[in-house]
Structure prediction request, 836 residues.
Amino acid sequence: MSKVKRDAKVTKAKILQEARTLFSIKGFDATTTDDIAKSSGVNKALIYYYFKNKAGLYAQVMSGLFDTIYDEVVCARGSCNSTTDELHAFVKTYAEYAYKHSYFPALLLRELSDSGAHLPELMFASMRKVFILLSEILQKGEREGVFIKSIPILVHFMIIGTINLMVTTAPLRKKAMEIDDSVDSCAECSTDKITTDIFQTIQKSLEVK
Amino acid sequence: MSKVKRDAKVTKAKILQEARTLFSIKGFDATTTDDIAKSSGVNKALIYYYFKNKAGLYAQVMSGLFDTIYDEVVCARGSCNSTTDELHAFVKTYAEYAYKHSYFPALLLRELSDSGAHLPELMFASMRKVFILLSEILQKGEREGVFIKSIPILVHFMIIGTINLMVTTAPLRKKAMEIDDSVDSCAECSTDKITTDIFQTIQKSLEVK
Amino acid sequence: MSKVKRDAKVTKAKILQEARTLFSIKGFDATTTDDIAKSSGVNKALIYYYFKNKAGLYAQVMSGLFDTIYDEVVCARGSCNSTTDELHAFVKTYAEYAYKHSYFPALLLRELSDSGAHLPELMFASMRKVFILLSEILQKGEREGVFIKSIPILVHFMIIGTINLMVTTAPLRKKAMEIDDSVDSCAECSTDKITTDIFQTIQKSLEVK
Amino acid sequence: MSKVKRDAKVTKAKILQEARTLFSIKGFDATTTDDIAKSSGVNKALIYYYFKNKAGLYAQVMSGLFDTIYDEVVCARGSCNSTTDELHAFVKTYAEYAYKHSYFPALLLRELSDSGAHLPELMFASMRKVFILLSEILQKGEREGVFIKSIPILVHFMIIGTINLMVTTAPLRKKAMEIDDSVDSCAECSTDKITTDIFQTIQKSLEVK
DNA sequence: CATGAATGAGAGTTCATTCAT
DNA sequence: AATGAATGAACTCTCATTCAT
Prediction:
């Protein structure tokens, strides 16, 4: 029994958390294992002991993220009483998650911009699960006659593409506004306003006339 | 007719072209100046002679891209005879450009995922010009009573976000389809189909009832 | 008894020693970190691990030297029983140190010829301490009425300037003598003779008539 | 006949002058041919055309210096009417030259700190000529019975060592004074005062009692 | 006489990774 | 479980020098 209680799980979690933050801020390449070790307050070699190497740590960081978001969407969907509501819940949950964990959009966009070159299997599967969820909602709506037939992946990308860009460009848009406010770049829009607008756009396009 | 090339313009252009390709495939960090020099068939030091440093080369590469796309949109807009047409031209031009120069979406997403941390002024200005273009179209439509009031940046991100993701994920979606084709991920959709769908979605959401 | 060396202190000392030698022979710029690493039998990166960068190593090398000389002078001064003796001890100690560690005058002259452009704070402080020591001796002599009032820095530079030049030009003077011995350039003078001569010169100039 | 009169001599002189300044400020290694070319307003390649290489330029710069100082001392000596006066003229001329052309002491000290490793023959000869001059004065004084027997090289180094250090450390001493003025480092002494003090010191030590 | 284009050889520095304890 | 010491392979950037005109 050691003096200081050193729980492997706690240490590992701390490393994962710091890595997630750093990877999202600086990207995979620009984040060094030294950075992560320092932030986590552990020795660099320990990272290799736990995660084999930098790529292994990255993979673990990434796959954790999508599982969380998947769970949240599933959960939110539970308390809906119409398919339209479910669509709304999807948009709302995703947007709120993205705004709350602003490292997430950065990581996702960067990952997708690689054409999945390094995309670990695990992460791909997790990402896909979220997409399947939306597909199910759209199909259900179609069957019920409340949505017209659509191309699910386009709807999906329209939702998450817009939200992700809004989150990652937030500081940029704020800066732009200070320089030139003649064009509204929604620099101070609330998450709610954005969520609503995106949902309405999607809904209108799916509407059965 | 000399064997030795000593034409600054030609050499510079060659470097820029190879750099563009490499940056888009591997990103800024993972692309080395050695790579670029080798691909361009020039001595590494020449890159520094012309572009001061790696970041300088990157900045020139990026701003060149947006200027090109801006010009193409402006050009396409010229032969339109309604504001709705102009919107269509915007979507179509952007989509076609993105599909044709598939390195572009990767570069853009990667850049935006950095929250503009390294975003050179030059590039920011070029990007903004494209956005302003769309804003003008939307405002004109409003004034004419053919579009409802909208949030330009959301419309913009909806268009380019969707297109960029479709382009960068193309190989990924193809791979996914081979594994599991139960959910349509539009792996073989034509540029035209995608353009049309996106345009219609946007149009419906802007429609005055 | 392990074969592999993992003793930080020993390794660090070895690097410092080799660096000192190389810097004194070739100067800061012409000495490469590769040279130092090779001489020390360590990996180049280890230099950065211990000293942050080349300049940091240099600073450590230099301030170490002055601290040593300071200590030696203080020590020698301890066993003196007159202020004149103390002055003699100063000259003698400095001269003996300079002749024994002949890399030192080279490093010092080179450093001072830079007008302190790169002079690290640490080193400046160490250098100054030696000067203050001499100042104290001179002041004490004044108070006691054995020395006339003098300008300490001039006395200091007269002593160390002469000694340093004698040491660094030793090979040059030997070479010169072989070519033309009509003018005595003291090519084979002993340290003792030089020390005595310098001391007497200074003493005479300080003498109260 | 070209439009703009481009006199080779003028261009060469300009390069030499700028090189002298730069070498004295930054030393041989840290001065780049780019620096010199830019300062001189000429193309880099021209330096190679005129001086073969960087070392050649350096050699030309250096040997020019000592010839000048030699001439000035010889000249000053001409209007003296005692050997003591001649000694005074030597100190005075050297000090004034050093203070006026403050790049000179830096170059000299740096050069001497190399133990003449790179010292070009030409420069060595020029330096030696100045020393011989002093030797002659000292010998003459001895013969006349006004000076005691001395070691010429020590007298020489005492004079030029002190002066050179005073000039090169001027900025350093000024800085030191601002921080701590408890010890006088002669930060604001005039050239005249320094010259006088050095001369008197030397004179006293040579005095026949 | 003068220049812009181009190069080769390295220099300092960084970093993922491993070793020994 | 955890650490400081050590390494090898790269990477960015610099610079003296040369080429072609």
Observations:
- The mean pLDDT of chain B is 89.
- The domain at 7-52 of chain B is CATH 1.10.10.60 (Arc Repressor Mutant, subunit A).
